[in-house]
Design a protein that fits this description.
The protein is about 65% helix and about 5% strand. It is α+β, with helices and mostly antiparallel strands. Helix 1 packs antiparallel against helix 5, helix 5 runs antiparallel to helix 6 and helix 7 packs antiparallel against helix 8.
Length: about 230
């Protein structure tokens, strides 16, 4: 039983930390968000809703500056005020914003928030196993190696989720009659819009896949589906 204690503690720590983080995020979103109301976006959102067979696609605006979209653990979809500012300035089109919304709906549909809780807990367990093992094999670098391995796993799992959300968005945009053009054109702009560091880190350590790889996957799916 004592041998299992570090693993049980790692699992418990991961679960507690995740629930605390999710609760804190919900509080921030509740306090700093509003329902999206925009006459230019409403027809596009209606097309997404019709393609999904639902009455509406509710979207909220998270009042922070970074350019981003997110799917909250409770299933709500948000665009940041930074994204809305680019839209109002004409640097991002309504259709391109729809591709972001469709992507975040993909995260919701695939249950990625719940999956990431499981993944995060598993990473803590892996780290708890690797630290003492590698610490004996490589005394001075064991902790660093354990962290790198755990980070690589986290990046791989996150990239998997992003590809799944991209695929959902592609299917939804095609069904809504918008096509993949807005999705691809936004990806071409994305690094400049978000200040992404490009190739500053190895692909296997990036939480999001490389932009070129995502565009290639979209084109490949479109060729098969249409």
């Amino acid at each position: 039983m004592l041998r299992l204690l570090p693993l049980l503690l790692a699992i418990g720590y991961g679960l507690v930390l995740w629930h605390f983080s999710a609760r804190n995020m919900k509080r921030q979103l509740d306090n700093r968000s509003r329902r999206l109301r925009d006459t230019g976006l409403e027809p596009i959102l209606d097309r997404l809703a019709a393609a999904m067979g639902v009455a509406e696609v509710p979207v909220h605006v998270y009042e922070v500056d970074p350019v981003n979209g997110l799917a909250a653990p409770d299933g709500r979809v948000f665009l940041t005020e930074g994204f809305m500012r680019l839209y109002r300035e004409g640097r991002v089109s309504a259709e391109e914003l729809a591709s972001v919304i469709a992507h975040e709906l993909g995260h919701v549909a695939h249950g990625h928030a719940r999956r990431r809780m499981i993944d995060f807990t598993g990473q803590n367990v892996l780290r708890a196993v690797l630290v003492p093992l590698l610490g004996r094999l490589v005394p001075f670098a064991g902790v660093l190696l354990a962290g790198l391995i755990s980070s690589a796993l986290a990046a791989r799992l996150s990239q998997r989720d992003e590809y799944e959300a991209d695929a959902f968005a592609t299917a939804l945009l095609i069904k809504a009659g918008l096509g993949t053009g807005p999705q691809i054109s936004l990806f071409h702009k994305l690094d400049a819009l978000t200040g992404a560091p490009g190739a500053a880190a190895p692909a296997w350590l990036l939480t999001h896949p490389k932009t070129e790889a995502r565009i290639a996957a979209i084109r490949e799916r479109e060729s098969r589906w249409t």
